[in-house]
Amino acid sequence: MAFAAVNEDFSLLSRIATSDGHGEVSPYFDGWKAYDRDPFHPTQNPEGVIQMGLAENQLSFDIVEEWIRNNPSASICTAEGLSEFKETAIFQDYHGLPEFRNAVAKFMEKVRGGRAKFDPDRIVMSGGATGAHEMVAFCLADPGDAFLVPSPYYPGFDRDLRWRTGVQLVPVVGESSNNFKVTRAAMEAAYEKAQKENIRVKGVLITNPSNPLGTLLDRQTLRSIVTFVNEKNIHLVCDEIYAATVFAQPDFISISEILEEGIECNRDLIHIVYSLSKDLGFPGFRVGIVYSYNDAVVNCGRKMSSFGLVSTQTQRLVAAMLSDEDFVDKFLAESARRLGQRYVTFTRGLAPVGISCLRSNAGLFCWMDLRKLLKEATVEAEMGLWRTIIHEVKLNVSPGSSFHCTEPGWFRVCFANMDDETMKVALQRIKTFMFQSGEVAVPAKKSRRFQANLRLSFSSIRGRYVDDVMSPHNLASPHSPLVRATT
Ligand SMILES: Cc1ncc(COP(=O)(O)O)c(C=O)c1O
């Protein structure tokens, strides 16, 4: 049953419920809706929209499925696991199963190449990284306070950190001229801007590896951020949920390594957000954690975690899976290899039509540079191109402006949520688009075949789509399958 977002009596509801702090009125989420209305299927809907707006890691499920088959007692709903059913069903301690926290701590160490140690007693559960971010925001900031966030950044932060907490986010502007690096000068500028507006800054939130850039923060940058927060006596929240998606050199450096190497810093200011949504590809399990070096945050967070515990059934399964070192080693190596291969397939596929991506070595996406396709460097022009890509090229990619990127023309394109064949179709559509738009000359040999394959119309329908997509009638209902908790 669909619930119309219009004609509701908002006076009956709270300010939070009726505000648009959920951030879903954004092209980022509208793109998903366009996909859901017309999803690509190789045989049933070959002209449909291909979903490239979803940062899912679906390339290594065969390895997980093999493990599940070989370990039936890890699942309590099997004949082999049934004897544990009752104990699992009644367990509801908000500390979590000790074996779960131990296994997650060990997994985090392994992902960081053993260069950092994690104390299981500092692990606090939450419903995915989404819940973890909100929990941290509740613990560290009051309504009206702000976090500085290097941009471009994951659009979900606008919901996760702000909506229910009343906290604000102030972008630390990143620029393509230095590959969107986080600089001390940009952090100072954002800090001063907030102060001028009488906004109290409570912390910095970094994402390493970055969503949407797929790049890593280097040692020097991490040290400079730690020094910055220490000098200002504000917090540092490090989202490291893409830690195991690194597929090429250089290695990932966790904030925990920086602390262990020795740096002048009050550890009470440092907190890590982690989840299994990206590294293992399990966003549906909602396994998120806060790892804080601050005892008070651990204690308070643990009480708050009552609102978003990881189910005991999931804890039990994850504990068994992550305690199997052979499985973990195999999964991590193979997952990184497959992600690397996909990255190469995608970026090499774009090269012949003159499209480049920011050089990256992690994540489930590329940061694609289409600046030269814009008639003018404006957000309006970016949105026009985005609408063409969704509705005519039939690819759901996400425009840079939805990541608070200040330079129009960048797009995030996810490449790990589809099979090889779908990736080929997506690449072919981009190539066709480039040839047809006149950006690239059709190679003489291919000319006839391309002409036959050119099915994109590029008719002048932009205005219609603006209205269609942005219309409140298209807002997803609370029960709609369109609504995903995260991306
Ligand atoms: C940087 C970042 N943080 C947090 C999340 C939310 O993750 P989870 O599914 O664990 O809630 C995402 C999801 O895309 C993300 O990209």
Summarize the structure.
The chain is built from 17 helices and 13 strands.
Question: Would you write up a description of this structure?
Answer:
The structure is a single chain. 40% of the residues lie in helices and 12% in strands. With 487 residues, it is of the alpha/beta class. The strands form three sheets. It has a seven-stranded mixed beta sheet with strand order 2-8-7-6-5-3-4, with helices on both faces. The radius of gyration is 23 Å and the shape is globular. The structure holds pyridoxal-5'-phosphate. The site of pyridoxal-5'-phosphate (PLP) has 16 residues, from helix 6. It comes from Aristolochia fimbriata. This is 1-aminocyclopropane-1-carboxylate synthase.
Highlighted features:
487 residues, alpha/beta, 13 strands, binds pyridoxal-5'-phosphate, 1-aminocyclopropane-1-carboxylate synthase, pyridoxal phosphate binding
